[in-house]
Specification:
It is a single chain. The protein is mainly α. The longest helix is centred in the first third of the chain and has 18 residues.
């Protein structure tokens, strides 16, 4: 048990969080210097040690290691400062260690929702023109980054049609 959550509950929560977080936009700040940054590194180290041990948490340690940056290092706002980042790390690590994962996810979802709503949707025509202009100027990297930023996460919903199409494209291996 980690805080007030049992191992089984933690496994379920981590799986659900992992499945949701892969669709989030990247909104992570750099690890600050000082105690908060060290505490975050200590938490990551703890989970890596679980991977090397034969402990009860061994089944979820890599997923936890993958979701912690998105949970703990979310920028509180677009123009947040390092001091705010440190206090956010402290607050979120406390919630994580107490096992209050649902409250932590609620905060992260709120930030992501704010992040998405502040972004104006651009038309496909506008994106195409901007892409062509950047390519003509020889700014290939900038053009690719712009396309990446404008496009979706690239992950499909796992519907029966998608599964059928994937099976057609990737048949089972011959023995």
């Amino acid at each position: 048990m980690r805080g007030k959550i049992t191992h089984r509950e933690l496994c379920c929560e981590v799986g659900e969080i992992y499945d949701e977080i892969v669709h989030f936009r990247r909104n992570i700040f750099k690890i600050p210097f000082g105690r908060a940054g060290k505490d975050y590194i200590t938490e990551l180290t703890y989970w890596l040690k679980q991977f090397n041990s034969n402990a009860e948490l061994n089944s979820i340690e890599l997923k936890v290691f993958m979701i912690l940056p998105s949970l703990i290092l979310q920028k509180p706002s677009a123009k947040s400062k390092s001091k705010e980042h440190s206090s956010a790390i402290d607050r979120r690590l406390l919630l994580w260690r107490q096992g209050d994962v649902s409250l932590l996810m609620k905060e992260v979802r709120f930030i992501q929702k704010k992040f998405k709503s502040s972004r104006k949707a651009r038309s496909m025509e506008d994106v195409s023109k901007t892409f062509a202009k950047l390519v003509m100027q020889g700014k290939i990297t900038a053009a690719i980054k712009m396309l990446d930023k404008e496009s979706s996460s690239g992950l499909c919903n796992l519907s029966p049609e998608v599964i059928k199409e994937l099976k057609q494209k990737h048949p089972t291996a011959a023995e």
